[in-house]
């Protein structure tokens, strides 16, 4: 429309606790009342039974999805480098040991300065995807990202993990939403990471709810998937939304290989 002005609608949660608080407390705008996919969609689309069940999974995890994600890390088991050893407590977890139930599932630096001398790696994952994307593809890509984090942290680098959602609204409006899943100093909470990266409810209920309280206009189909590079300049790896990156995630092993390839290209 001639004379229309594009507006950026921005939501940022600096921690997982902040994200959950906003999901519980922020109410949808008037335009969305009675049209909320966050509460109306069914299990086959979201892999959760209700909005309340989604919040429960975001807090406690989904055992089945967590197992699928953790097992991907086990499939790419590594040998610890010479500056690290295993212990019951430590700087960050060894995901294969965690998944296997081994008590010594943490890495401890033999040289206290080694880990701090390496830069923090920031990984940002666009979790938006079209309605036609199969939930299993979402799970497979999430597992592949966890496998990558597993490798990076085994080398003594700390990882910051951000889940984001970019959507094109009316007349070119941009919805720019993100939630920090893991801060660099935090250990990996597998239930949390699995939900954020691999559970269909992260987009199809949780981020849909963010759209509902952030954007004052109703969007049929919740807008168009987008990826705005100009707001992601501080990340070492930005994974595009499924369906817009010409990558197939239907097979988990192929997904792991592709995410590793994307990391190699970004790190080159």
User: Roughly how many Å apart are the termini?
Assistant: 43 Å
Helicity range: 40-55%
Question: What is the mean predicted local confidence, pLDDT?
Answer: 86
SSE pattern: EHHHHHEEHEHEHEEHHEEH
Poorly predicted ranges (pLDDT <50, ≥5 residues)?
77-83
Strand content: 15-25%
* Rg from alpha-carbon coordinates: 19 Å
Shape: globular
Number of domain units? 1
Write a structural description:
The protein is α/β, with parallel strands linked by helices and 268 residues long. It has one domain. Helices cover 42% and strands 17% of the residues. Strand 6 (159-168) and strand 7 form a beta hairpin. Helix 8 packs across helix 9 (190-198). The longest helix has 20 residues, at 135-154.
SSE inventory with pairings:
Layout: E1 8-13, H1 16-25, H2 37-40, H3 43-46, H4 51-60, H5 63-75, E2 84-87, E3 92-93, H6 95-100, E4 106-109, H7 112-116, E5 121-126, H8 135-154, E6 159-168, E7 174-182, H9 190-198, H10 200-214, E8 224-225, E9 237-239, H11 252-267
Parallel strand pairs: 1-7, 5-6, 5-9
Antiparallel strand pairs: 2-4, 3-4, 6-7, 6-8
Helix pairs in contact: 4-9, 4-10, 5-8, 5-9, 8-9, 8-11
């Amino acid at each position: 429309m001639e004379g229309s002005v594009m507006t950026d609608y921005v939501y940022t949660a600096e921690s997982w606790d902040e994200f959950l608080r906003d999901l519980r407390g922020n109410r949808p705008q008037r335009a969305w009342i009675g049209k909320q996919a966050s509460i109306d969609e069914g299990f086959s689309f979201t892999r959760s039974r209700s909005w309340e069940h989604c919040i429960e999974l975001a807090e406690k995890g989904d055992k089945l999805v967590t197992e699928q994600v953790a097992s991907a890390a086990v499939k790419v088991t590594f040998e610890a480098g010479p500056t690290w050893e295993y212990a019951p407590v430590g700087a960050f977890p060894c995901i294969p040991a965690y998944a296997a139930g081994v008590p010594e599932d943490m890495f401890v630096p033999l040289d206290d300065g080694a880990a701090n001398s390496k830069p923090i790696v920031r990984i940002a994952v666009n979790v938006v995807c079209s309605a036609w994307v199969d939930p299993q593809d979402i799970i497979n890509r999430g597992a592949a990202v966890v496998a990558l984090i597993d490798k990076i942290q085994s080398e003594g680098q700390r990882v910051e993990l951000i889940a984001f959602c970019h959507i094109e609204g009316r007349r070119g409006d941009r919805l720019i939403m993100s939630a920090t899943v893991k801060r660099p100093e935090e250990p990996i909470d597998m239930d949390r990471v699995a939900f954020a990266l691999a559970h269909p409810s992260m987009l199809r209920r949780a981020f849909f709810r963010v759209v509902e309280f952030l954007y004052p206009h109703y969007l049929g189909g919740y807008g168009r998937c987008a990826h705005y590079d100009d707001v992601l300049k501080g990340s070492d790896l930005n994974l595009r939304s499924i369906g817009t990156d010409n990558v197939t995630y239907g097979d988990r092993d192929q997904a792991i290989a592709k995410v590793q390839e994307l990391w190699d290209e970004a790190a080159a």
